[in-house]
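Practice problem: predict the structure.
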Amino acid sequence: MANFFDLTGRTAVVTGASKGLGRAFAKALAAAGASVFGLSRDQGELDGAKDEIAAAGGVFEPFAADILDESAIQKAVARCLDRFGPPDALVNNAGLGRVNKPFEEITTAEWRRTVDNNVTGTFICSKYFGLEMIRRKRGKIVNLASMSGLIANKGVHCGPYEVSKLGIVALTRSLASEWCAHGVTVNALAPGYIATKRNSEFFASHPEFTRQAIAAIPVGKIPTPDEIAGVMVFLCSSASDYMNGAVLVLDGGYTIW
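Answer:
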């Protein structure tokens, strides 16, 4: 059974790989044997991820790029092909977080920035890396949705983040319906609250919200990125070969109520 999760000899592309969930996913994929090609706008943090993964015996190639810059993503694809060959998996993790304001206070610029980064950026990376998968009739794409794309979160303001994450679910299913014929499966991971650095700062400054959120999670805790990263290994491995167009909710049970 362990062989189903072995990524030795495979290449995994992770966007937003320099910190938070993306860095945790990159570390887990590298630990499973994959050569990881990591994208982010922050070269310094990418270099830090490379050092951390290398220290653990993994392989990580950093590439600084904005996911909305099509020419930069095309260059990233070329570099990935030159360094590792065609990608076996693409993790579309990069994106922006919540705009925690009432709808009537959200600016059009804030709306467009969030939706563009989260949905259009996912589309651009899927298009150019996915073309390489289509060419050789094999590949896996995992898009980062959120439980917030499936519900209206209690205690915070909804807005472009929630709309964009539901858009990613629709994009996932649309790509899955067309690309499976080319040997490419497309699924989405929808995490609940995760203790990333940014989220942890919010939790610390909003103790009553945090108390209520944890009380609503049957598992009774908010996990760190590393605690859930193993799920990404499953989604990028042979163990998930029959999954296509699925949205895997990973929220400790928050949305079962």
